[in-house]
Amino acid sequence: MPAIVPLLQADDAVRIAHVRAPRWISHPAAGAAHNAMRLLLERPPSLRPRGLLLAGPYHNGKTMIAERFAVEHLRAADQQKVWVIQTREGAGLSHFYASILSGLRAPQAAGWRSLSRAGDQVDHLLERLKPRLLIFDEFHSALRGRRQDVKAIFSFLRRIARVHDISPVLVGEIAIYDAVHDTDEMGSRFDTIPIPRWAYDEEFATLLDSLEASLPLADTSDLSREPLAKIIHDLSEGLIGEVVEIVTRAAVAAISRGEDRITDATLSDLGYVPLSRRRNSALRHEMT
Question: In which domain of life is the source organism classified (predicted)?
Answer without folding.
Answer: Bacteria
